[in-house]
Amino acid sequence: MQHISAPILLLNPAICKANIQRMAARVKLWKGDFRPHFKTHQSAEVSEWLREAGVERITVSSLKMAEYFAQHGWSDITVALSVTKLQAQVIDQLASNINLNIVVEDMESIHALEGCLNNPVGVFIKADTGYHRTGVDADDLVLMKKLLTPLQEAKKLIFMGFLTHAGNTYYARNQQQLDDIVKPALEKTLALKTFLKDHFPLMQLSWGDTPSCSMYNDFYGLDEYRPGNFVFYDYTQTQIGSCTLKDVAVCMAAPVIATHPERNEIVLHAGAVHLSKDNIKLSDGTISFGKVVKLSGLTWNIEEEIGEIKSLSQEHGIVSVNNNILQHIKPGDVVGIIPVHSCLTANLMKQFLSTDGNLIEMMK
Amino acid sequence: MQHISAPILLLNPAICKANIQRMAARVKLWKGDFRPHFKTHQSAEVSEWLREAGVERITVSSLKMAEYFAQHGWSDITVALSVTKLQAQVIDQLASNINLNIVVEDMESIHALEGCLNNPVGVFIKADTGYHRTGVDADDLVLMKKLLTPLQEAKKLIFMGFLTHAGNTYYARNQQQLDDIVKPALEKTLALKTFLKDHFPLMQLSWGDTPSCSMYNDFYGLDEYRPGNFVFYDYTQTQIGSCTLKDVAVCMAAPVIATHPERNEIVLHAGAVHLSKDNIKLSDGTISFGKVVKLSGLTWNIEEEIGEIKSLSQEHGIVSVNNNILQHIKPGDVVGIIPVHSCLTANLMKQFLSTDGNLIEMMK
Fold this sequence. Notes:
homodimer; 364 residues; alpha/beta; TIM Barrel; Lyase, Ornithine Decarboxylase, Chain A, domain 1; 2 domains; six-stranded antiparallel β-barrel; 20 strands; 31% helix
């Protein structure tokens, strides 16, 4: 039996593998390629579970992450973060070893990269279909055509198609709201192919985000899907409706430091350096930094709710505890926390403890 | 010249050393010991700058951090996080090598630790003087005396005194508000000595937090001071009034990924995995995840403001850019970000690049 004396992130492989199987089956229905995003787990060991489910091509969020997974046997990688000339050297090095796709969204970067790369690289243009974070407005066909002109002549930059991330699906809180965000974004994406396919008949449309891939049921015409968070899911995804609490594959084991019955609070050794400061507004209007549940050994029980983390400092989490439970909790106990945002939590913890007792390493 | 192709946290040693000198001089005025908190820098190399300023005793926020600094020549360490029996083995191991102080706040943990430790350990009782996070209510002398009873007989747990952290000073936004928080907390702390010194004439009072140690001018009667953030300061501390922008010793160098003149925004490669999701409300009511300034080489210029980060996702930061500046910024530029919370930012980045071009390692 593992002795827990400090926060550690538990990972249930059975739940994780079921999430992978379910998503792989959904993508197959839509006749697209499954190119999952690996930024959530950042782990060579977890990546093998995706390989077992038939995954051959992957997405990452940084060139450093591409280098890590290239070293672990992945040879077809899309870096879904827009690049500029600053990254030319790293891109060229990676492209000498693997099939690398990058994302660009401005003319100067296209010219600069074409001018200095030695190895061919696949290029997606980032299309903004409503999230308004990065990307060229998908409706701006004039600008799109302008960016495509140098790509028609390019020797090192091989135009692959358009990549979009409808990150505004994270604002949805039910199926209807999600559908209302996805439908117009999907139409904008498909229109790019309709209008531009004459010049680029092989162009691909690449689509991302876990909420839409988990909940939307009418995808068609897209070439690949890049969800990432679904491998673990998290408390936020349960609020959107992408999953239920039983689908969340990770849980922070956290020691109880103090109990304060006079204010219905317990204090955990689990702070911003473990969970991240990401938080969600619950349906009752309160803010939560994580749902606290009972833990027995390395197994958490979502049916036995203890409370919600109402504030976080660097190493501490303060939990508003449900009535009548506080008398059963004492300093030195260990509880579980369903994280608000599993990507950021995993990124902070840098390793997992599987529920069968094995340490699973991540990219350092 | 260092080529920056991904976010990296710059550290200006001259500013950092000046912050250390200034704080050491303040603590000397109050005739207390200076036991700075090392959770902000988490770096053996930066710790040497504190040693050069005469520091011999330190504070850390976890037992893991205590192990790291013990390995780097620090032999008197207080772990300012309440512990329970769960940590007994790690505590005992550390206490066999260094002078270790721990913090406790409940009877069961006192009995359990006394029962199983082989090596003597200094013990502070955590006193809550108004922050209401952890600690025994400093006004509750009945409970304090109850906790002290077993410590009078204890052989392994050596009672050192009371430790308090007036973390509510972070709510202050000017000198008056800070004084109004510190005065009653200081009085409560001093009262503990007044009422209990007959039984424990050697008891010490240990005081923490950067805002009060930077701004309060009338400390007396305390035995030691444990500020930590002051080595770097950050954007939050400038809002409280602990420092000015020119005192902030760290700045994130971040590539510009995209520019969006139509909505006065630029997008940076600098997200929650680099900066943390901590944010502050500025005086105009808007939220900022970091102040963006011009960067020339490795030198940032606080006089040349570019804008404020208005939202963060995992790898991206979106900046609201001041008028007329956007035309001078293009993808592939590198800008600087004064972080909202330098402790969390450093914890994520795991290393610094000094402004004279050297990599400075941190605890991994």
